[in-house]
Amino acid sequence: MSAAAHNLNPAQQAAVTHGDGPLLIIAGAGTGKTRTLVHRVAHLIERGVAPQRILLLTFTRRAAQEMLRRVESLTGSRGARVHGGTFHATAHRLLRSYGAQAGLAPAFTILDQGDAIDLVGISRAELGFGQRKSRFPRKETLHHVYSRHVNTEIAVGDILRDEFPQFEEHAADINRVFADYTARKERRNLVDYDDLLLFWAAMLDAPGDLGTRIAALYDHVLVDEYQDTNLLQARILRGLCRSHRNITVVGDDAQSIYSFRGATVRNILDFPEQFAGATRVTLEQNYRSTQPILDVSNALIEHARQRYRKRLFTTRGGGEPPALVAARDEHEQTLFVVDRILEMHEQGTPLREMAVLFRAGYMSADLEIELTNRKIPFEKWGGLKFLEAAHVKDVLAFLRILENPRDDVSWYRVLHLLPGVGDVTARAAVALLAERSWDPRAFAVFTPPRAARAAHAALVALLDRLGAPGASGPRGVSEEIALLRTMYDAILRDRYDRAEPRLADLDQLEAIAGQFPTRAAFLSELALDPPSGTQDLAGAADTESDALILSTAHSAKGREWDAVFVIWAVDGWFPSARALRSDDDTDEERRLMYVALTRARNALFIVHPLDAYGARGGSGYAINQLSRFLDERVRAYTQRMVAVPDVSPGAAATAVSSEPIDLRALLRGRFGGN
DNA sequence: TTTTGAAGTCTCTCC
DNA sequence: GACTTCAAAA
Hints:
There is one protein chain. The protein has about 675 residues and is of the alpha/beta class. It is built from 27 helices and 16 strands. An 8-stranded mixed beta sheet has the order 11-12-10-13-14-9-15-16. A 6-stranded parallel beta sheet has the order 3-2-6-7-1-8. Strands 4-5 form a two-stranded parallel ribbon. Strand 13 (about 560-565), helix 26 and strand 14 form a beta-alpha-beta unit. Helix 1 packs across helix 2. The chain is globular, with a radius of gyration of 27 Å. The model is unreliable at about 535-540, about 615-620 and about 645-674 (pLDDT under 50). The structure holds a DNA duplex (15 and 10 nucleotides).
């Protein structure tokens, strides 16, 4: 089938049928970027490129799955052989196959960000920093600097000078912490996210034939969301494509929102220089949104400093202007959103076709409570991750000890769970284990303080049972979880409040563990591709079910919905006060708002509470003003609304009205009298 | 000496 | 609301 037969517009067609050599596709929001990329892959296959020699790199697994599914529907089973995934997942796969040839011990475990921060914290404590008078960076800050250094190749000293001048004097000690952290990872056979990319890049650049062999695995490389790649990723791509230069990148500089992770918009701006002779195609026709929604979005992004000029247009007629809704407080905002959603649902819009977007995960708390009370199903993307929940990390720590007994981070975590065991006892136990070559059974020999004796005995017994084969040969992962929960559930009830939902999380964890052949596969998968939240896990079995989507603006990228609500459009919230340290940061926040607005197809509501509770502890930005991005020029394209709750008994419906109401008047005079 | 409970300090985005 | 810090209790 020819590309034209698929109703592609001329620009899309040019991109799809581009022959060999570097190709840069600048694609505005909703311009059929995914469609173009998918058709290009299909076109390559039709042209005779072997599917397994095509690599499709995406930003999230959700995007990867979606694209591979669509490739398959275009090309049939051949498409299933295309390699696709995130940079990190692809790096992981290559390291498992080729890492040993580059000196990486096999059977390494992957540290997720939380683990990595904990490990940095251990290095920090071991070296004795942090107990001093003069302020030393927190473990989170240290990890941030470390990660930035690896991903951007900027010297540690320069990062400190630019971002944390207050810690510049500690540069030498900070480097010592990093050296210790690096050594610790190596001793424990651990690999963090940054290592995945770094090692991949290093293998490609390695002298000898290793790099050549890895580069020779693929004939064509296609990259989605190129504006969100960093220097290290660009280096990997140069290495991968050095012989054939068959690289296609798709991106939108107006949607670059990951600089906090080291992404640089320079990658996309400099692509023509990096890959000389690159062809450039720009997609500007938007197929997603109504013109009024595009008008607001265009006005918003107009004043961002960006290189590739483009102005989205659509041939879709009609559509209401987006609504700018003032709510009295957070709860009124919630009621407005919920009532509107129910209204549209009544009129036939499935819940799954509507989304509520916000700057940060915690901002949906009130909304989640209301949805739960009203029994409206929802799925939350982004924000606090399933894996970051303390009780899930606890259970995984047990599994990690079994998988890699040298993992002292997990040992500390498990030991701390025992009543009567604090820092000192845990340290002593780990020291003993280290002495006995990390044999888990050596733990039985450890003499705990009196208060911890019973707990110690229980853990010894548990590890013993876990170490022994089950009744039917080696245990499955879910069987292991069930077994360790015989001990852990009681600890959970004791240590955490709201035990029930947490236990339900563990039920889910146990269930998905059953899908993995080995413990190692389960742990790697969780680190690289964590479920986005408990709801996500619960809904894994029935993705068909209808549920409203709640998402951070970041996690919403690449998606679209019939109706979109952007809540907390308040200065200090969106843009986030924390992210306003420089003009560049402000620009990124603006692009993030742009991403949020351009997710909407037909209806867009921007809601801002006038009174945010307590004005964030009374410090700083106390006045709740409308987001600075929604200035007059943007507001000119919106219609103003006021959310007013209906106070009649039994109804919580929200009416749209510009009339103020007087609550006291409802009762005034009702009982006669003066 | 070690643990643990309470008061106090922040609080983002993600592979 | 989770994590850190500090002081009391065992």
